[in-house]
Design a protein that fits this description.
- One of its GO terms (molecular function) is ethanolamine-phosphate cytidylyltransferase activity.
- Pathway: Lipid metabolism; Phospholipid metabolism; phosphatidylethanolamine biosynthesis; phosphatidylethanolamine from ethanolamine: step 2/3.
- This protein is of the alpha/beta class and 791 residues long.
- It folds into 4 domains: 3-243, Rossmann fold, CATH 3.40.50.150; 316-473; 502-617, NAD(P)-binding Rossmann-like Domain (Rossmann fold); 633-787, HUPs (Rossmann fold, 3-Layer(aba) Sandwich).
- The strands form 5 sheets. It has a 12-stranded mixed beta sheet with strand order 2-1-3-4-7-5-6-8-9-10-12-11. It has a 6-stranded mixed beta sheet with strand order 20-21-19-18-22-23. It has a 5-stranded parallel beta sheet with strand order 26-25-24-27-28, sandwiched between helices.
- α9 packs antiparallel against α10.
- The radius of gyration is 30 Å and the shape is globular.
- The model has no long low-confidence stretch (mean pLDDT 90).
């Protein structure tokens, strides 16, 4: 079983893995023999009886007098037409001190207001409307229904469970990462702690996590939780938990369960036996920080449980967010003090930092990493910390009596850049309140702390340095498929919001048919930032851009170049940036404007006020197909006349191959021939010289212009295109060319990256085909012979 399969199988157990079941208690588990049942049987050392549905699809308890200490029922009540009948039977079979642990989805959960589909009807908003559209006819197929909190409480009251404690669940029953006792208000920034999961992330149109603080402010946080766990007690005794946080998605060795208790203590415990060492490391790290003069929340380790006091104070994160608004100078002073605490944690020295290799890496990825040309700052000696506590961020601190006091310092990386620690601390503060960027740009803080703020590539590198260990910890590579299936995609959210704000015709004109009339009119871009540079990189060769407009007069007269290219490259002449007043020189019907700005509404209003309506909006997340550039008339006919599905026809219509094609040889020719045998129209993407240098760490023997001409000269090739080196992946290629199949060499068959590419293509109606390379000849072998002077 893979790591991903192990983790996703265990995620549903978070709802009860923390619960303090007494040893040898008797539990009746209502449901199937699933992960929760197995966890109760093995991990909790309890006696568990499985109660399953009978042949009529109903749960039927024995008529004998057997009684249990606990009944556990997670989500099953929702699938019954008469749930109250089962609840009354459960009460009869509970001991006088017994408890029912009932997990229920919330019909009014915030996820459903954000656009998630109903888990039973697979439609939007059915639970919010109490299913009046879904089950209005007697013959409608009933798969289940969710209830609101008040409906569940009424049901429990009528069944005799009038003494109970409710826990609000986020994200949901299948991944209960956070539980909050009813009435308890968490003292932390949840927007950067909770990663919401969905049944249908492609329909979501709101950032759920950005709503939590507003819900708390208005008393709606618990009412609109995504699910509930009800602890129903016949004798009135309950767990003392106020908040439970589980990190089962980190895997057995790193998963920790944190519980805030109502006696003002906090406990941390390994979720699995394999993780007990992690708790010992935490205790040791906190002792080290204390010895080095860093203020910490002190704790004690006993029987594998780390206990510390609950602190009634603002987190460092909330304090800084509040201070930013009230006293900017003091805010900057506190950040200086925060950096001083980071430096106090360990000795520093100057040396070269080497980015660790990813835990999951294919041979091809390893080769590219080792051959990659190192950046200047990677060669320099930088300030390194011998033992870097990489989680020393404001979120993991309190502000008490004028000092930052740290907690939860589980992670240490040796010989780690101080700049990366400061970069992460700053980024974490801004992630909680993005509006700060408009008042005090992060660049000013980078400058204050001597971080090269004017080098975007260096800042991106620092971002990678600060996140590589987080990606490993969160198992992002292993759980990529799970996250794609259950987590939202920002591009989908933007697109869904766009569709809601406009009529069908306006949406089509503004966001879909953006190249309408772009061939017959002067094409003008509005905006000179990342979006505009990306547009030039992807579509600059298909459409001639006559001008670039920007409201920032400091940019007027500068030249705009495609993303990833600089004036020194000499490949692009650049497009001059001008004032929007330039539009006054043109008559209506002479131009087409494409707005290339993230916050496009202000520009739309500006153009409308000028009486200009010939515009569309470029969305980098959309897949706008590029123009076709067939090499010859036969290629034109091949593209226009598909033979797929016809007698003697090809398997695919449009095929795609990508490569460097340096030292063009028989292996390349054979691959093109085999690909053309399987498709009507073959597109070949050729890596640019800059792409070879940056991603293969070597210099091509043959320059790009000659390589692409050799590819074009092959009779099997219908179109040859340059691969924009900043957009050189399979997903980028499909978005530009909308092919039906990508052909590749068999040396990538077992590459994990290509497995995910294949999944992406199949979701979009395309696929991957692998061809064996010619064993006797390859560009690499030819280069080796040249270097040895054997050719």
């Amino acid at each position: 079983m893979s790591v991903a399969e192990q983790i996703t199988r265990e995620l549903p157990t978070a709802i009860l893995r923390w619960y303090p079941f007494p040893k040898d208690c008797e539990i009746a588990y209502i449901g199937e023999e699933d992960a929760i049942f197995n966890m109760l049987t093995i991990s909790k050392q309890t006696k568990v009886t499985l109660i399953q549905k009978n042949s009529h699809g109903e749960y039927e308890l024995d008529d004998d007098s057997r009684q249990y200490d606990y009944f556990v029922c997670i989500q099953e009540i929702e699938k019954l037409r008469e749930p109250d009948k089962l609840l009354k039977d459960v009460k009869k079979h509970l001991k006088n001190t017994g408890k029912l642990l009932l997990g229920m989805n919330n019909a009014l959960g915030i996820r459903y207001f954000c656009g998630d589909r109903d888990i039973y009807t697979n439609r939007n908003f059915d639970s919010i409307e109490d299913y009046y559209r879904a089950y209005s006819n007697p013959d409608d197929n009933f798969d289940g229904k969710m209830f609101s909190k008040s409906q569940i409480e009424t049901m429990l009251d009528e069944s005799g469970f009038d003494r109970r404690k409710a826990y609000s669940v986020f994200s949901d029953l299948q991944n209960a990462a956070f539980l909050f006792a009813d009435g308890y208000v968490p003292n932390e920034e949840l927007s950067i702690r909770i990663f919401p999961t969905y049944n249908s992330p492609e329909t979501v149109f709101l950032d759920e996590e950005r709503l939590y603080s507003r819900l708390m402010e208005n008393g709606l946080f618990h009412k609109m939780a995504n699910a509930f766990l009800f602890e129903c007690s016949l004798d009135g005794s309950f767990s003392d938990a106020l908040q439970v946080t589980s990190s089962l998605d980190r895997g057995a060795q790193d998963a920790i369960i944190t519980v805030i208790h109502d006696n003002d203590t906090v406990t941390k415990e390994a979720a699995y036996e394999e993780g007990k060492k992690k708790i010992e490391t935490l205790a040791s790290n906190m002792d080290k920080l204390k010895e080095r003069g860093v203020p910490v929340v002190e704790g004690t380790l006993s029987d594998g449980i780390y206990t510390m006091p609950y602190i009634h104070a603002e987190t460092g994160m909330k304090y800084l967010e509040r201070l930013f608004i009230t006293d900017k100078e003091l805010y900057l002073q506190r950040l200086d003090e925060f950096k001083a605490e980071i430096l106090k944690a360990s000795d520093t020295y100057r040396g070269a930092f080497e980015m660790p290799a990813p835990k999951e890496e294919s041979e091809a990825q390893k080769k590219r990493r080792l051959n990659r040309k190192r950046k200047p700052w990677e060669e320099e000696k930088v300030l390194l910390q011998k033992e870097a506590f990489v989680d020393m961020i404001p979120l993991n601190s309190f502000f008490i009596n004028g000092k930052f006091v740290f907690f939860d310092q589980e992670f240490v990386i040796n010989d780690y850049p101080v700049d990366a620690l400061v970069y992460r601390a700053i980024s974490s503060v801004y992630s909680g309140t993005p509006a700060q960027q408009q008042i005090l740009p992060m660049d000013e803080l980078y400058k204050r702390f001597n971080i090269p703020y004017d080098n975007a590539e260096h800042l991106s590198y620092l971002g990678d340095v600060t996140s590589f260990w987080l990606r490993d910890l969160r198992k992002e590579q292993e759980l990529k498929e799970y996250h794609e299936e259950h987590r939202k995609n920002p591009n989908d959210i933007n697109a869904n919001r766009q569709r809601m704000n406009y009529s069908v015709d306006d949406y089509q004109r503004l966001f879909v048919d953006i190249f309408d009339q772009a061939d017959t009119r002067k094409l003008i871009l509005f905006g000179s930032g990342v979006f505009a540079r990306r547009f030039l990189a992807l579509y600059g060769e298909d459409y001639e851009v006559s001008a670039v407009l920007d409201n920032n007069e400091k940019r007027w007269g500068d030249k705009l170049y495609p993303e990833g290219y600089q004036p020194s490259d000499g490949k692009f002449k650049g497009v001059e940036i001008e004032s929007p007043e330039t539009l006054q020189k043109f008559r209506h019907g002479e131009y087409k404007i494409i707005i290339c700005i993230k916050n496009y509404l202000s520009v739309m209003k500006q153009l409308d006020a000028m009486g200009i309506y010939e515009y569309s909006i470029f969305d980098p997340g959309k897949a706008y197909p590029r123009k076709r550039h067939p090499i010859c008339d036969d290629s034109v006919r091949s593209y226009e006349n598909s033979t797929v599905g016809k007698k003697g026809g090809k398997k695919y219509h449009v095929g795609y191959i990508a490569g460097v094609f340096d030292l063009y040889h028989i292996g390349h020719l054979n691959m093109f021939r085999r690909a053309k045998e399987m498709c009507d129209y073959l597109i070949v993407g050729v890596v640019s010289d800059e792409g070879v240098r940056r991603f293969k760490g070597t210099e091509p023997f043959v320059p790009f212009d000659e390589r692409i001409e050799m590819v074009k000269s092959c009779r099997y090739v219908d179109e040859a295109v340059e691969i924009p080196y900043m957009f050189n992946g399979t997903e980028d290629a499909w978005k530009m060319h909308h092919f039906d199949v990508q052909f590749s060499g068999t040396d990538y068959v077992n590459d994990p990256g290509f497995a995910s590419f294949k999944e992406f293509l199949e979701k979009h109606g395309a696929t991957l085909e692998f061809f064996p390379y010619t064993q006797s000849t390859s560009s690499t072998k030819l280069k080796e012979l040249i270097e040895k002077k054997l050719l």
